[in-house]
Amino acid sequence: xxxxxxxxxxxxxxxxxxxxxxxxxxxxxxxxxxxxxxxxxxxxxxxxxxxxxxxxxxxxxxxxxxxxxxxxxxxxxxxxxxxxxxxxxxxxxxxxxxxxxxxxxxxxxxxxxxxxxxxxxxxxxxxxxxxxxxxxxxxxxxxxxxxxxxxxxxxxxxxxxxxxxxxxxxxxxxxxxxxxxxxxxxxxxxxxxxxxxxxxxxxxxxxxxxxxxxxxxxxxxxxxxxxxxxxxxxxxxxxxxxxxxxxxxxxxxxxxxxxxxxxxxxxxxxxxxxxxxxxxxxxxxxxxxxxxxxxxxxxxxxxxxxxxxxxxxxxxxxxxxxxxxxxxxxxxxxxxxxxxxxxxxxxxxxxxxxxxxxxxxxxxxxxxxxxxxxxxxxxxxxxxxxxxxxxxxxxxxxxxxxxxxxxxxxxxxxxxxxxxxxxxxxxxxxxxxxxxxxxxxxxxxxxxxxxxxxxxxxxxxxxxxxxxxxxxxxxxxxxxxxxxxxxxxxxxxxxxxxxxxxxxxxxxxxxxxxxxxxxxxxxxxxxxxxxxxxxxxxxxxxxxxxxxxxxxxxxxxxxxxxxxxxxxxxxxxxxxxxxxxxxxxxxxxxxxxxxxxxxxxxxxxxxxxxxxxxxxxxxxxxxxxxxxxxxxxxxxxxxxxxxxxxxxxxxxxxxxxxxxxxxxxxxxxxxxxxxxxxxxxxxxxxxxxxxxxxxxxxxxxxxxxxxxxxxxxxxxxxxxxxxxxxxxxxxxxxxxxxxxxxxxxxxxxxxxxxxxxxxxxxxxxxx
Length: 767
Fold this sequence. Notes:
Distance between the termini: 55 Å
CATH class of the largest domain: Alpha Beta
Radius of gyration: 41 Å
Number of strands: 38
Number of helices: 17
Mean pLDDT: 84
Number of domains: 5
Low-confidence stretches: 139-174
Shape: elongated
C-alpha cells in the first residue's frame, strides 16, 4: 500500500493578511526592544522566541492540516455471491422463446456466473471472488462447502493478494435463506471490496431485511449488481407438501396416512395417489387435486406384520407439470403388537355396558379390567376373569391403565371416592391416560362434577335433570364438520360412505342432560333434532387435558349399532376410541419408563415438548431424580436435554427440543437414580421453510440495487455484467487528516513556548 503525505492550509485573504501584519508588527517591535538594550544577546534570543510564538500562532490561524493518502497497491475485489439455497432448485427458468416443459433450474440459469473462466476479462483489473451462500448442510450464511456444485473459489490470485476471506458455513439443514448476513459482512471479510454481484431468486426467509445491509454498502460506496433469477409466478406444478405418517401402528389394524398436495395448475384434475411400503404393500386412491390451492386427503394401510417400515407416497406427473421431482415423499413407521390396558367402571350392567365389555374383551389388542359396583349388593358384581374386586388401590396400580371408562357411577359409599377421582385426573393430566365419560339414566355421574373430575368433563350438565331425557321414538346423531374429519367417527373408508353410515345408524332413546360444550373442546356429533339456547345439543365431545385425552359419550344407545350388522360398527368405533386415547402414552415404553412427545409429527424448526413418566424399581412413580434425554440428529450431532420434574407424585418429567434437521432423530432417555434407559425415535418432516417451487422475488434484488446505486441485469447477459463492473471507478484512497490547528500536541507546545518566554524574561531581569 503506497502512502502520500502533504501539509495544506485552509487560508483566506483576511487570515493571510492578518497573519502577515501580526508577524511584521512583532518583528518591528522586537527589533526596537533589542536595540533599546544595546543588542544584548540574551535579549535578542528572547525577542526571537517572541517572534517565533507569534509566527506559530499566525500559521495556526490559517488552519494547517497534515494529510496522509493510503492507496492500495492490490487490485480492487469483486464478490460474486451465488444463492445455493434449496429454492434455487426450482425448475422455472424458461428461455424467452422456450416452453415450460423445457424449463431449467435457477441454479442452472446462473451456472455461468459460477465458472471462474467467465470472469477472465475482468481479472486484468480486478480480483474476483466467487462465494455461494445458504447451501444446505452448513451452519452460517457466508459461504459453501467444497462439495457444493457452485462453490468454486478464486484460489491463487485472491490468496496472494490476501483478499480471499474465510468462507463461513451456510445454514443448517432445514434453515432458510439469509440475504442480510453475506451482504453485511462482505466489507469486513473482503479487503478493497469494490462491488458485489448478487445472483439469487430473492426468496429470503431468515435474518433482518437485506435492505438494511444495502444501506451500509451504500455508505461504503459498494454497489450491488443484482442478477434476479426465477419466475415471478409459479409455473404449472404439483407439489406433495407433507406426508404425516404416525409414529407407530398396530399389526392388523388400519393406519391412517394423511397427506397434503399443493397445485398451481389452472384446473382441477383427478389422479391416482400410490402408497408403497418397504415390504411391497401397495395402496392406491383416486384423489381430486384442487386448482391453485391445497388438497388434503389420506390413505388407509393395514400392515400385516410387526417391524420397521418406510412408507413412500407418489403422485403421477401431470402432462402440464414442469417437473415431478417434488411429487414423492417418504417417512418411517414402526409396526408393533399392542396390549392396551383398559379399566371399565360401571354401576348396573345396562345394555351399553354389556356390549361395550364384550367389544373390548374380544379385542385382541386390549387387556380389559371390569369393576361393576352393582349398588344393593354386598360386594361388587362380576363373573369371569375380566372382573376385578375393587378399584385399584393406589397410584402404582391405577397408572398401569391406558384408558378408563366411567359409566353411570358417582361418589357414594360403595362407589368412587374423591381421592380416587383425584388419582384418575392425575393419570390423565400427567401420564397421558384417556378418560371416557358415559353417563346413564341413574344420573350418578352428576356427582362427579363436585370432584376434581369436573375440570376434565368436556360438557356442562344440567343439575335440574340428572336422569337425562328419554324418548319413545329413536333419536339420531348428526356429525359436525370436525366429526366428519375425525378418526374416531370413521366407520367407513370414504367420507361419503361414512356420512351414509352415520345417517343410517339405529337411533338412541336416551341422552344425557347436556347444556353446552366447554371452551377448548371439539364437538364431533350433535343431536339431530334437539337444541337449546346454546345451539344443538352436543352428544359426542372430545378434549385434551394435560397430556391425556377425554371423551364424552352423551347416549347409551351405541349398542344398538349392532342391529343387522353385528359388531361391524360398534366394535370399530370403540376400538378407535381406545387406540386414539392410548396413542401418545404408547409412543415408547419400557418396564419403568415411558416417553411421548407433542407434536407427534414435528416439522423443522418446531419445538417438540418431551414428556416422560419414570417409575422406581418398585413400580411407583419416581418422586425426584435426574432424567436426561440425549437426542441425536441425522447428521450425528447430539444434544442433551435435561428433563425437569412436573410434580413429585406423578413421576412426570418434561423437556423441550427444537428440531433443526429433517429425518429420523434417535432419543435415549436415561434416569440416573434407577439406571434405566429407553431408546426411541421420532421423525421430523423436512424443509418446511426453504423448499423448491415457490415464486421468485426479484423485487427484493431490485431494491438492493436501487439503494446501493447498482444495476439489475438478466442472468443471460454476462457481458453486460462484466461491462458494468469494468466501468466502476477505482476506489477512492483512504485519507487520514490531522488538523494541526486544533491538535492537543500543538496547543501544548505553544503553551510551553509561552512559559519559556515568561521564565526568560524573569532570568534577564525584565520582570
